[in-house]
Amino acid sequence: MAIYLTQESKVLVQGMTGAEGMKHTRRMLAAGTDVVGGVNPRKAGRTVDFDDRAVPVFGSVREGIERTGADVTVVFVPPAFAKAAVVEAADAGIGLAVVITEGIPVHDSVALTAHARARGTRVIGPNCPGLITPGQSNAGIIPPDITKPGRIGLVSKSGTLTYQLMYELRDIGFSTCVGIGGDPVVGTSHIDCLTAFEDDPDTELIVLIGEIGGDAEERAAAHVRAHVTKPVVAYIAGFTAPEGRTMGHAGAIVSGSSGTARAKKEALEAAGVRVGSTPTETARHVLAVLDGAARDGAVGGEKVGDGAVRDGARA
What we know:
By secondary structure, the chain is of the alpha/beta class. It has helices at about 20-30, 60-70, 80-90, 105-120, 160-170, 190-200, 215-225, 260-270, 280-295; strands at about 10-15, 35-40, 45-50, 55-60, 70-75, 95-100, 120-125, 130-135, 135-140, 150-155, 175-180, 205-210, 230-235, 245, 250-255, 275, 300-305, 310. A hairpin with a 3-residue loop joins strand 17 and strand 18. The two termini are about 30 Å apart. GO terms for molecular function: succinate-CoA ligase (ADP-forming) activity. Keywords: Ligase, Nucleotide-binding, Tricarboxylic acid cycle. This is Succinate--CoA ligase [ADP-forming] subunit alpha.
């Protein structure tokens, strides 16, 4: 099992014939992704050779869906055209749009995520590394060779920290890793992924990576307390960030205690989540939780009281 992306997923790449699209399409194919076509109206009817695979180029997402049965699109188009690309995909009925493009204006991100939601299309991103179900499919730019299939689900705002935790926990492996992006407006939240991982029988533990700014992690903590029975381990980037300054690609502004790493850590710990002070310590927490659960004979916990989980491992 996995969330959002499986070996059955059929993937289109909008912007496949550009430099980044070509490079990462080759990597996705090498990882086993079923890339069934690219989309470029100016190059429709051509095929692009990727080693031993010839991939057709369609003039529209709708044509690509009709010809191949595609249900996922990965968007590698410039920021000025990203909104139109996602709107086109959503109007064509695509189920999942993975928006790699960074630098999309916030008002465009608001519009494209709202439009996609109204059409029933899930957006991952924008400004994200995509998602990978190791051993099955890889939609985006996540390196496929740094981990293996396993029992950890990962949701992260940060691409780099996604890769680091995947590598640190490579001996255990992952069900699905989702890079949701760190922009102020994203299509899929921590809570969406927590819900999906909670429902996935092959995910035994969830790793949540957040960043300073906003209240997404605090809202995720409340969701964990109320709805998640599986153990959750977290890491929050930005403990050394100065207050009142914009930091990082998220454009996170920290003011007073609002949006700080400490406030997020406290909210998560109050919900029973172990929070690491570094990525490596976070990985050690994961190993400790899984080891304790193995000794107890189970990983899933029993809901008690106000939604805390009794599993013998969570703080």
